[in-house]
């Protein structure tokens, strides 16, 4: 039910309904309510309460998990002088979530699709990130877990790109093996090649 509700809302109101006057909060509340409606819950008062509570719950770190090796990898990248930023198809809660997960200090900027006004794979979000980072595309690398939105989209604007793909997940035939990260901890070894 969630996939159906999320997909319908994304098609009708892309990028959290920003171009149609919605806030990301309104967008998510509708998705949650529609998810439960599709599952057979009809009490609108209960749906509103659940949706508001879930939205608030996902503002905090307790509902998110930091990838194994992320803290160490980010720290090592910063020690080597890499300028890092976050480019995400998420709403503006992300910066606060990163703070609560004790990760925000690792990044010079956080660019959400809501804040940028466009979402990956749109090249404009990567161009904005490059401007924020102050680097040309050929000196930048993007790490992501989605072949189309991350890997191909970053390469389309001239960036280097790595696909985070744990062992056992489907492989993308067009991705060279040295562009695939089985874990985030593999990043430094690939960059230093």
TrEMBL record:
Pfam families: Hydrolase (PF00702). GO terms for cellular component: nucleus. The lineage of its organism: Eukaryota, Metazoa, Chordata, Craniata, Vertebrata. The gene is Hdhd3. NCBIfam families: DREG-2, HAD-SF-IA-v1, HAD-SF-IA-v3. InterPro entries: HAD-like_hydrolase_domain (IPR051828), HAD-like_sf (IPR036412), HAD-SF_hydro_IA (IPR006439), HAD-SF_hydro_IA_REG-2-like (IPR011949), HAD-SF_hydro_IA_REG-2-like_cap (IPR044924), HAD_sf (IPR023214). It comes from the Eukaryota. Belongs to the HAD-like hydrolase superfamily. This is Haloacid dehalogenase-like hydrolase domain-containing protein 3.
